[in-house]
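Before relying on records like the one below, remember that each one covers exactly one chain. Contacts with other chains, cofactors or solvent are not represented anywhere in the record.
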Amino acid sequence: MPPFIVFMLGAVVGAVASVFAPELRRNARPLLKEAIKAGILFTRDAQVNAVELFESLEDIYAEAKAEADHAGSADAAAARAAPRTRTAAARGNAVRKAAAKPAKRAAKRAVKRGGKQTAKGNATEAA
């Protein structure tokens, strides 16, 4: 657009605005006030909806946690009620550990007395 046309268009808009300025002032204030009031009401509604959403999410979380705790306690009760059986390998490991304890104790006592070689010898003799 040529600059002259833009200048003329601006001048016409300015003239029309100056003619209608008093009327615009009278009508603009109530319109602006209504727009601000609508924004405030919209914000309040949004806050209420957000609070309700978070409360419902907290309720859902609490229900899920309660169900998980209940299921976990039921699993724990079932595990306690189930008979404990050891496999042959587990029994063998337990026997070896029990047999090695006195040798380890003797080795520790010997180390405390001051003889590291004696502790090694006691441990090999006991095994």
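The chain has three helices and no strands.
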